[in-house]
What does this fold into?
Amino acid sequence: MNFTTYQIMAFIGAIAGMAIVFGLGFIEGRRAVRKDWEQYANDASHQAEQLRATLHKVRHDLDICRHNAAQAIEAMTEERDRHAEQATTLQLRLTTAQERIADLTPLTLTAEDITSLRIVNKQLLVAAQTYAGLNLLDQARFASTACERLGLVIDRVAAAIPGEPAQQEAAA
It folds into this structure.
């Protein structure tokens, strides 16, 4: 099989044409792949930038939350200290009041004391009647007024003292 010059030239031209078409296809393919990779790189860079912005925002929010928590703890500590001071003050006042009550307890009147006062009041009434019988009208008026006033005082004190009203009524 003999090939002519034209055939050889056509064969070389066909090979050269295929090489050119293959080269152009290869270059265009590389350009398309590079373009895809650049797009992927841009997308990844954009996502990384968004993640950095989100991370920065989250860190900022975390700092704000920590600051708010610190302020809340400080406020609660101050309130607890204030309540502790108030509790101490109230405990001191209670202790003082209890001491004063203990000091005044022996001075309080009992139902027996009220009975004794009612007896004295009756004796004062007897004295007023005696003065009136002796025709000493000024002394009788004075004793009668004192008897009425003492009776009112005894009734007020008796109402304030816890006890059996029947005993107080019986003594009267």
Observations:
- The two ends are 163 Å apart (CA to CA).
